[in-house]
Design goal:
This protein folds into two domains: 132 residues, no CATH class; 171 residues, Trna Endonuclease, Chain: A, domain 1, CATH 3.40.1350. Helices cover 37% and strands 17% of the residues. Strands 4-5-6-11-12 form a five-stranded mixed β-sheet, sandwiched between helices. A three-stranded antiparallel β-sheet has the order 1-2-3. Helix 1 crosses helix 3 and helix 6 packs across helix 11. It starts with a helix and ends in a 23-residue tail after the last helix. It comes from Tardiphaga robiniae. This is Restriction endonuclease.
């Protein structure tokens, strides 16, 4: 996505807090170090290099806009984060916290590019494409470029998964992740009473905007899933997972919220290692058309990327001994 240079300079002056003498400034003034801090708050690694501030910011914005777009009429997620950070209501300057003057100035630049900024009920600033009314909603995008700090967290999580047991994978990683992603009534079957699992390690539900509810069962394996005839100790055979997925879809679960037993709508197969291409192909060929849409896959790379972009605190075992994590697990 490309913005006109005039637009980039206008937005960069807002980020820098540059205004001509006599003009009222509705944006904080940011010196070199505060510009670096600003872009760190946007989850990027840009560091001001000492050159003229507004030109440097304009070039940085141009680079950010060159990132992949989620869809044709939505700017890159990083640019949306820049706008949200710039328009933080806690940074209101010379006006009310709703920042009407600052919003007007920002929109005078964005309208030229076919976008409009607005505040939603959560008091966060969002971007809307004027022609299509498409909103650049924030959300975890596991395919965006990661910052150096995020890559470090990813490496720490990899080290944790290498030595974590299946129960630790479930309790320390998957349960917090699915809660953060909006699933609720997440229940882990545990491994003490296998006969009660019916192929499910976890069950949970997700409420659609229409208030319809979908139920999910999750089968978790610590290591790699393969389709080879001889399965190593660190791997699991996909044929076994196929049988457990069928059990998962065929047995009811009790939902205490409605006091009824319900069937699982979708089966998640989650592996702490890789799900090989052969395993995916085998399972896809084995399932008929009615079942294929009910089986979803997540392997280690999916877990890592989602965990990082949702900004969840690392499991205690993934942190250095000198670092403590004060963030308790979220409640059920």
């Amino acid at each position: 996505m490309e913005f006109k240079q005039r637009t980039l300079m206008q937005i960069s002056n807002m980020i820098c807090g540059n205004f001509q003498e006599g003009e009222a400034s509705y944006f904080r003034y940011r010196s070199s170090s505060y510009l670096t801090e600003f872009f760190q708050d946007c989850d990027t690694d840009y560091v001001h290099n000492g050159t003229t501030r507004n030109y440097w910011v304009a070039e940085t914005l141009k680079e950010i806009l060159s990132d992949p777009q989620p869809t044709a009429n939505v700017p890159p997620e990083t640019f949306a984060r820049v706008v949200r950070t710039l328009m933080d209501q806690g940074d209101a300057h010379n006006e009310a916290s709703e920042r009407p003057k600052a919003l007007e100035m920002l929109n005078s630049a964005l309208t030229r590019e076919g976008f409009e900024a607005f505040y939603a009920e959560d008091k966060q600033c969002y971007l809307r494409h004027l022609k299509t009314n498409t909103i650049a909603a924030p959300g975890p995008n596991p395919h965006r470029p990661f910052s150096a700090a995020e890559l470090k967290r990813k490496d720490q999580l990899v080290a944790f998964l290498e030595q974590a047991s299946e129960d630790e994978l479930i309790e320390e990683v998957l349960l917090p992740l699915f809660r953060q992603l909006g699933f609720h009534r997440i229940t882990a079957a545990g491994h003490k009473d296998k006969q009660l699992e019916y192929g499910k390690d976890i069950w949970m539900k997700f409420t659609l905007p229409t208030q319809h509810v979908l139920y999910f069962g999750i089968q978790v394996k610590r290591g790699k899933l393969d389709a080879s005839g001889t399965t190593k100790a660190s791997s699991a055979n996909v044929a076994e997972i196929h049988n457990q997925a069928l059990m998962m879809l065929g047995h009811e679960i009790f939902d205490p919220d409605i006091g009824k037993r319900v069937l699982v709508d979708h089966a998640f197969i989650v592996a702490g290692g890789e799900i090989t291409k052969a395993a995916r192909n085998w399972l896809g060929n084995k399932l008929d058309a009615t079942k294929r849409s009910q089986i979803l896959f997540m392997d280690r790379e999916d877990i890592l990327n989602l965990y990082v972009v949702t900004s969840l605190p690392l499991p205690t075992g993934a942190l250095p001994a000198s670092v403590s994590d004060d963030n308790d697990d979220l409640p059920f």
